[in-house]
Amino acid sequence: MKTNQNLLLAGDLGGTKTNLMIFSSEIGPREPLKEATFPSAQYPSLEALVSDFLSQANLKIERASFGVAGPVVSGQAKITNLPWVMNETQLSKALNLFSVRLLNDLKAIACAVPHLQPEDVATLNAGEPVKGGPMAVIAPGTGLGEAFLIWNGSRYRAHASEGGHADFAPNNSLEAELYKFLEKHFGHVSYERVCAGIGIPNIYAFLQESGYAEEPAWLAKQLATAKDPTPIIMNAAMDGKRLCKLCTKTLEIFVAVLGAEAGNLALKVLATGGIYLGGGIPPRIMPVLKQEQFMKSFQGKGRLSNLMAKMPVHVILNPKAALLGAAYAGLEN
């Protein structure tokens, strides 16, 4: 087995899949020496999965850094939808490594932001970025993740957040009715209940129940057998051949609320350096994000609307952003 103290392991750990790569600190994570994806649920623990990967790689690493789909507290974490319980110290011993770092997956994406290349992003608003200004990340995937970055005088430091669970605030009468519908079903209504993957079926159900429009027969047939209705609703909303008013309005509300919450996050951290949309959904709905509604909601902050117009807004296109961020975080150890 080859030994090199400059080799690091990075991972993006999710309930469905785990992405791992080994890279050299001298070359960087953009050119990994070994990379693979594993079905997370087929392994009893992270230690078992990593051991499998390392046995295939035939490379000796010294350190590891993992982005985790869940909160990390005092070096411990548990992935949502998996029985894995992870501890940095225990992982170091089990894998015979000098150190292991666990960080929230949104913090991992934030760690990648300062290293993103032009081809990694699409710009919705060029704005007037302030050098060294705070930056923020909002990522609608299955849930809604948020994080932010602060310049410490020499580099950006990423910080995790659970802002996606903050109280949803309607901006018009239709959203107020949506709030009442969700409150009846869930009690507490967070932004994640609306502008995340789990929120899209919620909006759809509200519109359907309120009688906004009739559900097309072809769509009802697809939804009846779907394990996850979210991609079906999104695809139908952007289908130029078959009109579905329910789906189109669902995505319109989704984008409006996402824009408003992205603006809320930008205000709270004063993101003059820019705000980045991560997660799996934004790249899939780029045609809709480029329309007027998103930026209108983002900038619609009353007396501070002019300030909002100066804040850059970008969509992260690179699907490996969390993996890259975990790698860059590992280089900081």
Description:
- By secondary structure, this protein is of the alpha/beta class.
- It folds into two domains: 2-104, Nucleotidyltransferase, domain 5 (2-Layer Sandwich); 117-317, Hexokinase, domain 1, CATH 3.40.367.20.
- Helix content is 37%, strand content 23%.
- It contains twelve helices and 16 strands.
- A six-stranded mixed sheet has the order 11-16-15-12-13-14, with helices on both faces. A five-stranded mixed sheet has the order 4-3-2-6-10, sandwiched between helices. It has a three-stranded antiparallel sheet with strand order 7-8-9.
- Strand 12 and strand 13 (144-151) form a beta hairpin.
- The protein is globular, with a radius of gyration of 21 Å.
- The mean pLDDT is 94.
Topology:
Layout: E1 2-3, E2 7-13, E3 17-24, E4 34-39, H1 46-57, E5 59-60, E6 63-68, E7 72-73, E8 76-78, E9 85-87, H2 88-95, E10 99-104, H3 105-112, E11 121-125, E12 135-140, E13 144-151, E14 156-161, H4 173-186, H5 199-210, H6 217-224, H7 229-237, H8 245-269, E15 274-277, H9 286-289, H10 292-299, H11 305-309, E16 313-316, H12 321-331
Parallel strand pairs: 1-5, 2-6, 6-10, 12-15, 15-16
Antiparallel strand pairs: 2-3, 3-4, 7-8, 8-9, 11-16, 12-13, 13-14
Helix pairs in contact: 3-12, 5-7, 5-8, 7-8, 8-10
